[in-house]
Design a protein that fits this description.
The structure is a single chain. This protein is α/β, with parallel strands linked by helices and 260 residues long. Helix 1 packs across helix 8. The relative contact order is 0.15.
Length: 260
């Protein structure tokens, strides 16, 4: 399938590791011009070197805290200037913060919403003029299945992710007239630094393959997903192959969620 990404100008937040890096690698391999954003300068530099080595595309890397509006505006402005515009935005930055309701103080609520919800808002607002100038664009907000089916002790993450889904749907309605598509992906258990830390803490005697396929995870497809599998779906959603898809969410969870 031809994705039509050659020459497209893309920015991925949280692009130095995990799903963000896998997405940047996939888009670059399809011919997109890349900018990646994250807080850590060294991991960004290493990610950029990996993208260049594996795809032949030299990405722009921009250190920024996505939760700070001024830094988001600066990052988008720099990316758009150096790329010559902006067609694609993947709002991927975020971490898991899951505790019982009674243990979550106000500062934790604020920090989580600033990172996961307002980070996406800041980048999308800053990207909007560039996408309008380009005649359209595509935005993917990376959320989690907990936003659809929040469980016990899942706060504040599940609330921030649910807000991200509402944001996606509302944005898709508002921006459709400008030919800007907005979709979301809802992540389940996908291999990442965090999941690997959980593996080494809970089951150090198991190989990764054994841990991934442990029935205790209750994943219908029988294993933990890989970052590349999430990147493949994101690449499709931002591509011309998904030109009539907007305002939807796709679960990337091996079937574990109880909802569509």
């Amino acid at each position: 399938m031809e994705l039509g990404l050659s020459g497209k100008r893309a920015l991925v937040t949280g692009g130095s590791k995990g799903i963000g890096l896998a997405t940047a690698l996939t888009l670059a391999a399809e011919g997109a011009k890349m900018a990646i954003v994250a807080r850590n300068r060294e991991t960004l530099r290493e990610a950029a070197a990996r993208i260049l080595e594996q795809t032949g595309q030299e990405p722009i890397w921009i250190p920024a805290d996505v939760s700070v509006e001024e830094e988001a505006r600066r990052a988008v402005a720099e990316a758009a200037e150096r790329l010559g515009g902006l067609d694609i935005l993947v709002n991927n930055a975020g971490t898991s913060a899951a505790r019982p309701f009674a243990e979550v103080e106000k500062d934790a609520w604020t920090a989580d919403l600033d990172l996961k919800l307002f980070g996406a808002v800041h980048f999308a607002r800053a990207a909007l003029p560039h996408m309008k100038q380009a005649g359209g664009g595509a935005i993917v907000n990376v959320t989690a299945i907990g936003g659809k089916t929040p469980g016990a002790s899942s706060l504040p993450t599940s609330v921030s992710r649910a807000a991200g889904l509402a944001l996606t749907k509302a944005m898709s309605k508002d921006l459709a007239a400008d030919r800007i598509r907005v979709n979301a992906v809802c992540i389940g258990l996908i291999r990442s630094d965090q999941i690997e830390r959980m593996w080494k803490a809970k089951a150090p005697e198991q190989t990764w393959e054994e841990f991934s396929r442990d029935p205790k995870h209750n994943i219908p497809l029988g294993r933990i997903g890989e970052a590349q599998e999430a990147a493949n779906v994101i690449a499709f959603l931002v591509s011309g192959a998904a030109s009539f898809v907007t305002g939807t969410s796709v679960n990337i969870d091996g079937g574990i969620a109880a909802v569509l």
